[in-house]
Amino acid sequence: MAIALAPFLLEQPEAQSLFPPDAIERAKRYLANIQGGVGAYSDSKGNPYIRKEISNFISKQTGLTSDPETIFISNGASECVRMMLQAMIRGPTDGILVPIPQYPLYSASIALYGGELVPYYLDEDNGWSLDVAELQRSLNEAKAKGITCRGLVFINPGNPTGQCLTEENVRELIQFCYNNRIVLMADEVYQENIYNTSRPFVSARKILGRMSEPIRSGLEIISFHTVSKGTYGECGLRGGYMELHNFDPAVVQEVYKIASINLSPNLPGQIALGLMVNPPQPGDYSYEQYIREKTGLLESLKRRARLITDAFNSLEGIVCQETEGAMYSFPKICLPPAAIAAAKAKGKAPDVMYCLELLEETGISTVPGSGFNQSPGTFHLRTTILPPEEKFDDIITRFKNFHNGFLRRYNSASSSSVRSRL
To answer: What separation, in Å, do the N-terminal and C-terminal C-alpha atoms of the chain show?
Structure first.
């Protein structure tokens, strides 16, 4: 990346000692395949050489062919999501099925394009699992309101819930979408972030390829991925992509027109994507260091996920499902009646008040569950597992002290209120 951004470094006599030989060769290949350098526009779909790297990655991951012409690179996967929602939503009677709790990108974008968010609820008591009966209920309710569901979003691993779908879950989603002529939107940006052994990540594209006809070639599916997550976490470089599979070529061309509005995805983000999907291989000079760093980071995230889940579940009034993947925990918090009343008096949602008091007292920043939607009558917060591992003991101690004090404060207020009424 450094050499591609500053090619003059190759002219320095210290270059051979500063950079591994495979990094130098890789940078030269990118520079040879990027006309005008990283400061120039690329194709609106993204650089053809890098799209071919992505296509090869998808083929290796799924065992299926992938056409680079159906791959669109963008300034982060969020931009791809917005492009497709814009293409799919024709007006206020078009709906998109979205899991609840959901990532606010979807609710905000659907509202922006004038569509209707059609919620389907994940089953928290069963590890945020997927229920096809709930999908059907939501679809039927939308139809009764005159809403046509054009797409279905699933996030695997989940954000904010941190759950991993089983292969059977994904198969059910595929069957459901095919039966109801709905485009499947596979948000798989956290696919590297897996911390459990019982539910490994399997791409929806791969599962679709195992299914029989006419489903295999009849379901339109969009797969999203990004360099912002995983072990790279390069969210500031803004590199993401989507693959449109089983789409009519005319539709792909229309999406190309939408992409052209943005002129060109940034080149540093594109190179970062290329490095993500085509990392050092066995025998390369940098391979052992790459594997060591990647494995070490994933193992650390796994330990952090365990620490935060156990810490939440040790506290009165908090229940946290397993953090199986992604980068977050989403515990449910049972708030005392006095806390709920105090929040109402302040004109705030109860979980918003909780998170604000947590921030003020401890400096710990979390996102209230109401920001993601949640089952009515429940309260949650989302916290990340990204703080350095060596700081986790201190973070957990501060959170426990705050939570216990919060319960004492508001449970005491509830008791006083009861005594005064007596």
So the answer is: 71
Q: Residue 80: its pLDDT value, please?
A: 96
Instruction: Give yes or no for a contact between 224 and 188, defined as CB atoms under 8 angstroms apart.
Output: yes
Q: Which long-range contacts (CB under 8 A, 24 or more apart) does 109-113 make?
A: 109/81, 109/82, 109/85, 110/85, 112/82, 113/85, 113/86, 113/89
What is the value of pTM for the model shown? 0.92
Please list, in sequence order, all residues whose beta carbon lies within 8 angstroms of the beta carbon of residue 91, skipping any fewer than 6 positions away: 114, 115
How far is 30 from 136, CA to CA, in rounded Å?
47
Residue with tokens 């941190």: 162
Q: How far apart are CA 246 and CA 244, in angstroms?
A: 7
206-239 pLDDT, tens per residue?
Answer: 999 999 999 999 999 999 999 999 888 888 889 9
The fraction of the chain above a pLDDT of 70, given in percent, is 98
Check pLDDT > 70 for residue 157: yes
- Of 50, 108, 70, give the one whose Cα is nearest residue 259: 70
The mean pLDDT of 13-24, rounded to a whole number, is 88
What is the Cα–Cα distance from 249 to 205, expressed in whole angstroms?
Answer: 18
Structure tokens, 308: 């935060």
* H or E element that contains 335: none
Rounded distance, CA 19 to CA 2, Å?
Answer: 9
Contact between residue 96 and residue 89 where contact means Cβ atoms under 8 Å apart: yes
Amino acid at 138: S
Task: Give 127's strand partners.
Answer: none
Q: Hey, what are 118's tokens?
A: 């059609």
Q: Distance between CA 233 and CA 231 in Å, rounded?
A: 6
